[in-house]
Structure formats: C-alpha cells, structure tokens
Amino acid sequence: MDELNLETLERIPIPEGLEERLSAKIDEWELEERQQKAQRRRLLPSTVRYTAVAASVALVFGIGYHYMRQEESVNPAELDTYHDPVLAQQEAERALNLLAANLNKGMGHLEKAKALSDKAENTLNKQLNALK
Questions:
Q1: What is the 3-state secondary structure (H, E, C) of the chain?
Q2: Distance between CA 56 and CA 63 in Å, rounded?
Q3: b/e per residue 31-68 (b: at least 16 CB within 10 A)
Q4: What is the pTM of this model?
Q5: Closest CA to 29 of 19, 40, 21
Q6: 75-127 per-position pLDDT tens digit
Q7: CA gap 35, 14 in Å, rounded
Q8: Is-contact 81 88, C-beta < 8 A?
Q9: Quick one: which of 66, 65, 88 has its CA closest to 77?
Q10: What are the Cα distances from residue 109, in Å, to 120, 122, 126?
Q11: What gap in Å lies between CA 112 and CA 119, rounded to an integer?
C-alpha cells in the first residue's frame, strides 16, 4: 500500500454509478439517524410524564401514611404534661438547662479555637515583620 502513489490511484477505473450509489447510501444512513433521534425524542417526554405521575402518587401515599402513623403514635402521657402547669414548667426548665449546658460547652470550644487563631496570627505577623 505504501508503494501506491497518486498516479497509480488515478489509473484505477471507477465503476459507473458508484457516486450515485454512495450518495444514496449516505442519504439512507442520515435518514435512519434522524428517525432514531426522533424516536428517542418521542420516548423521552412520555417516559418523563409517567415518571412524574408515579412520583406524585408515591408522594401522596407517603404523606398520607405519615399522617396516619403520626395520629396513631400520639401518647396520652405527653398530652398530660401540657395540662399540668407544674410538670410543664419542670420539663421546660430541664430542656433550657440542657440547652444552656450544650451552649456553654460549645462556647468553650470556640474560645479555645479563637486563642489558637490569635496565636497563629501573632506568629504570622512576627514572621512578616521580620521579613521587612
């Protein structure tokens, strides 16, 4: 194949009608490709519609199931704490004390982090001043 040159290739006879047959075949391939794209476009919207309907139905059933289970799980003892003011006050104080303890613990960690940040900033400033 390396020995063939342009002159040798020009001497090879071209069959009659080859150009028309090649053109027709290329047109046929392009038509098939367009048809496949059109079919994919037609399938996608219907698939999306069915998926959206299925998701909506699942969502409605899920929400209904959640509310049904929520009504069944109501504990009468929990409702009574709101009717007894002393018990309600004790529960509120317990919750606020728990919140305050966790908040104070978080503030302690924040103060430690700020101290480390300040120390690093001071070290960096010293190094920058030494470079001047």
A1: CCCCCHHHHHHCCCCCCHHHHHHHHHHHHHHHHHHHHHHHHHHHHHHHHHHHHHHHHHHHHHHHHHHHHHHHCCCHHHHHHHHCHHHHHHHHHHHHHHHHHHHHHHHHHHHHHHHHHHHHHHHHHHHHHHHC
A2: 11
A3: eeeeeeeeeeeeeeeeeeeeeeeeeeeeeeeeeeeeee
A4: 0.30
A5: 21
A6: 665 655 567 788 888 888 999 999 998 888 888 888 888 888 999 999 988 88
A7: 32
A8: yes
A9: 88
A10: 17, 20, 26
A11: 11
d(CA 37, CA 45): 13
| Type of residue at 49 | R
Q: How confident is the model at residue 74 (pLDDT cuts 50, 70, 90)?
A: low
Tokens of 107: 């503030």
Which tokens is 33 given? Answer: 């490709």
For residues 120 and 25, give the distance between their C-alpha atoms in angstroms, rounded to a whole number. Answer: 74
**Residue written as tokens 């503030």?**
107
